[in-house]
Model the fold of this input.
Amino acid sequence: MRLPERFYRWRNRLLTDAGFRKWAASFPLTRPIARAKAREVFDLCAGFVYSQVLYTCVALDILRIVRDAPLDVETLAARIAMPADGTDRLARAAASLKLLRRRADGRYGLGERGAALLGAPSVLDMISHHAVLYADLQDPAALLRRRSSETQLAEFWRYARGEGAKALQTGDVAAYSDLMASTQAFVAEEILDAYSFRDCRRLLDVGGGAGAFVRAAGAAAPHLHLMVFDLPAVARIAEARLAEAGFGARASCFGGDFLRDPLPEGADVMTLIRVLHDHDDDAVDVILRAARKALPQGRPLLIAEPMAETPGAEAMGEAYFGLYLWAMGAGRPRSSLELKAFLQRAGFPKVKNVATRQPLLTSLIVAT
Ligand SMILES: C[S@@+](CC[C@H](N)C(=O)[O-])C[C@H]1O[C@@H](n2cnc3c(N)ncnc32)[C@H](O)[C@@H]1O
Done:
């Protein structure tokens, strides 16, 4: 047996041994470690309940209700139309999770995490959206036994069903386009802080949604001409939003299907933001080859999305996005190393990781 395997075997025997656990929890030097490890495992067991408390606070708008002034349980109960005993139980739970903070007089105001969440409305939108994910995850084993396009997430992200995406109408794409536009602000900030578009003239955002990223890029780099490619119904939304924001003369929007149609030419930089992880491997090859064909030799393609195996955020990739995208019916989280192999196969030999401040939100790869 190899050395690492021998070590894991020895460690696992130790950790499964009740006598060792008892000793580690009693011995003064190992006690803090034993307690921290027990808490980690408890949090893993209880995570579903914590998420439900968070979801309920957001769904009932409790964070906003207590933002300006702490409220007593009776007043809060009246505001959320819930009996006082249920409200009391919820408020205590939310305070233990630092969403609320219980004052000395028993009133509840915003807690540290509640305040941070209120400052990030897009995260609140994602939390509300999680109702759909939780519904699909009711029987995870059944979901994992048979990947299906009959889930609520597949109904929400209508393009995930592949066929017929080009014929989708505004009503089919509006909800996901709004969610993406709302959550784009932080992602755009990360990308624009990490990468300068100074040497670029025409930016094409492929799968650019309602144009939120190009609006941010256009504001940061006023010389840029902005191009968005997305499904026809989404491109129409992008065109309207860009015109409303005063970018009409600097922007062109193109409707099409990047799995079947060529990408528009003329851009000297392209972005694929939160797009590749939505697609299975064969589709990723098609998208990257289309990008290679439309982009002049030596010009950059930026891939920005949350990636698997991100140090310190491994569970975000493989656990959260792994199950989310499985439930959606298409795609998977990929590591930057895997994406590099896809890029090189598609004709982008030079691939560089560019550090972002919050890899939990997005990592960034620049390929030429
Ligand atoms: C997860 S959203 C990301 C939107 C945007 N890039 C962002 O980060 O906010 C994926 C986008 O890809 C678009 N898309 C999906 N399949 C497509 C296809 N076959 N052709 C063109 N666009 C597609 C969707 O309409 C959607 O706008």
Summary: DSSP finds 16 helices and nine strands in the chain.
